[in-house]
Amino acid sequence: MYGRGEKAMFSNKEIFKETFLEKLEMLCGKSFKESTVRDQYHTLGHMVREFISATWIATNEHNRSTHAKQVYYLSIEFLLGRMLGNNLLNLGIREICEEGLLDLGISLQEVEESESDAGLGNGGLGRLAACFLDSLASLNLPGHGYGIRYKHGLFDQKIVEGYQVELPEQWLRHGNVWELRRHDQAIEVGFWGEVETIHLNGRLDFRTVSEEKITAVPYDIPVVGYKTDTINTLRLWNAEPSPYPTDKNVMEYKRETEAVSELLYPDDTHDEGKILRLKQQYFLVSASLQNIIQQHRAHHGHVKDLHKKVAIHINDTHPVLAIPELMRILLDKEKMSWEEAWHITIETISYTNHTTLSEALEKWPVRIFKPLLPRIYMIVEEINERFCKQLWKRYPGEWDRIKQMAIIADDLVKMAHLAIVGSHSINGVAKIHTNILKEREMNHFYKFYPSKFNNKTNGITHRRWLLKANPQLASLLNEAIGDKWVQSPAKLTELLSYREDAVFQHQIAQVKKARKDILAKHIYEQTGINVDTNSIFDVQVKRLHAYKRQLLNVLHIMYLYNRLKEDSSFTIYPHTFIFGAKASPGYYYAKKIIKLINSLADKVNHDKQTNDRLKVIFLENYRVSLAEDIFPAADVSEQISTASKEASGTGNMKFMMNGAVTVGTLDGANIEIKEEVGNEHIFIFGLTSEEVLNYHHNGGYRSMDYYHHDARVHRVVDQLVNGYYPVAQDEFEPIYDSLTVQNDEYFVLKDLASYIDVHERVNNMYQDTHTWLRMSITNIAQSGHFTSDRTILQYAHDIWKIKHSEMIR
Ligand SMILES: *Cc1c(COP(=O)(O)O)cnc(C)c1O
């Protein structure tokens, strides 16, 4: 497919250089000598776009002509990171570019690093969506993403005097070479207004009048598969003023409209913000559904078989309005009966649940929902009524159960309930998470719809997280077992026969050292601190959240530091503890933890007495591109959430794939990592999820018992408030209170002793180099199970019923 005619620009180095110089002048309007790194990035990006355009068109035409079933993945987040490097790698043209640019005195790496991260997401959920797109295209599966083209992605984080400061992110500042605006396919989305009822030929019809319209303009981003001829599409909607008249003041209307695709997760502490979030959700869903149905109609002439040709997946509950929106289109536009429309809707839609934390389950007040989306609200009411009637038949007289399961109750619309009732598949994201859904959180629903529930353990694309992020490790693996693992990651198990091999072990150690040197350089540039690259790099990077327990990590470091200061017989192997985490702007407690980490770092890093043993580093602005430098450099992966709280985790998988050993609780996918590597290649500690859930259920935990009876615990907890840190007296009081008077909701004090113990084992084991490297290699070898290729094949086979396309020609 590639390499015909003028597309031959990547076929050899000389042609590449020639084309590059020619295009640079044309695109940037300056000579090569005057060009900046960004000009060079822009030029190379354009060349790649041109190179793939014919294949992109061919993929779309192929999909149309074969009538193959398509899957559409709807997600409020896509955490893509940078795209150039990944595209070059997947297209197999990275080497040509690297060599050609080098001849011109340009470093490809620098060019790649000038790209802004596309940070259209918070964390795990958004990164999962990005990994899934990579796997869909790499497996030749017809699957596309739908999202929102936020003008500002997740905020940029600065640390100022130890505190998080948020700056607006500006990824589109220099334009975006990867996107294609398609104004010809713009779609109108309506809000507000009133529903009119019309009796027509014995049929009750509904029409919404005096709506306020917003135009959704698609921007398409190509999703390039690894060495395949498939280029799928990520379609991001931009909100723009519509040409239809409105009663509003024109400037007010423009401002309100553009706000819809301005920001990821606007502040929703007030009604205005809540309305905006709900607007975003419906905007995404309505534009996508109208678009999908238009396309389907154009190719098939009718929508009676929609569910046989289209699968729509909703990533968490944010896009759950896809259910009533599909009903609206089928009822009001296609004039179907309720029964027919409902059958098609259920068969088309599937849903992934990402959390059991009750505060994270979306519930919308009726007073906000109903006026903003009057027709959609009517449909949700009707779905609810019919569902409750079914419940009544099955559970006559059980008012409590029916109220608990209802979609609308206490003037709230429960989005997870709507998702379960209106879809044919509900999956959790790790075995334990799915079991908790089935047996506890969604038990009533599981009993009512047992066959809808299933598990799909998350995965990550090993192409970005190993091949691209860690080329040093990738080439060592290629030398040892060949490069088949890139397309069939299960083949990584062939490494198992090398784990006792002294030469291979030595090479693995060298790669790790090289990656630690790279990260150390970055740390020095950001913080001015020199870290010892022979020390253990012990890393916790993820969003900051109480349940993820960065606090447990901090208290353990405080304990180590106390011991080192006071007990001259106590010694440890040198450790560098590395943190990276953004806190939600309105999450007061999480921000206190960031300040605490930085206060601890300040104290420890400036203490000459312990300096050669202990350092603490907080890396600001944790994001995909920074993560690509962190995972390869880690020796120890901290996955220490309170058991039962982390649905899966995917950071744990990225660490494992890069040879870090997990210190973790029996939570989320840690459990499956343990199953893959075996007990002796992972460090497990702490309460089990059974124990945690039983405490929740029966009570009986008293954090003060641990405070009073363990001197180590007592000491570090007191140090939060007794003037030990040079901060305002009450700075860390909220943390102190959470552990004491609020009875330590996340069992930090309960687990601290076993966490200290497990770290003693880590400390000893690391010094047994042979054993440690064996552990590290085992982790890499068994990481194949956690490729998103495996996950996506399971979704494709079990839920979406889609097949991979034959070679596109
Ligand atoms: C993988 C990833 C996450 C998710 O990490 P968890 O440890 O699973 O919470 C969050 N943010 C970024 C940038 C990631 O790459």
From TrEMBL:
The keyword Heme does not apply. The modification N6-(pyridoxal phosphate)lysine is found at residue 654. Transmembrane segments: none annotated. One of its GO terms (molecular function) is pyridoxal phosphate binding. InterPro entries: Glycg_phsphrylas, Glyco_trans_35, Pyridoxal_P_attach_site. Its cofactor is pyridoxal 5'-phosphate. Keywords: Allosteric enzyme, Carbohydrate metabolism, Glycosyltransferase, Pyridoxal phosphate, Transferase. Phosphorylase is an important allosteric enzyme in carbohydrate metabolism. Enzymes from different sources differ in their regulatory mechanisms and in their natural substrates. However, all known phosphorylases share catalytic and structural properties. Allosteric enzyme that catalyzes the rate-limiting step in glycogen catabolism, the phosphorolytic cleavage of glycogen to produce glucose-1-phosphate, and plays a central role in maintaining cellular and organismal glucose homeostasis. GO terms for biological process: glycogen catabolic process. It comes from the Bacteria. One of its GO terms (cellular component) is cytoplasm. Its EC number is 2.4.1.1. This is Alpha-1,4 glucan phosphorylase. The keyword Electron transport does not apply. SUPFAM superfamilies: UDP-Glycosyltransferase/glycogen phosphorylase (SSF53756). It catalyses: [(1->4)-alpha-D-glucosyl](n) + phosphate = [(1->4)-alpha-D-glucosyl](n-1) + alpha-D-glucose 1-phosphate. Belongs to the glycogen phosphorylase family. Gene3D superfamilies: Glycogen Phosphorylase B.
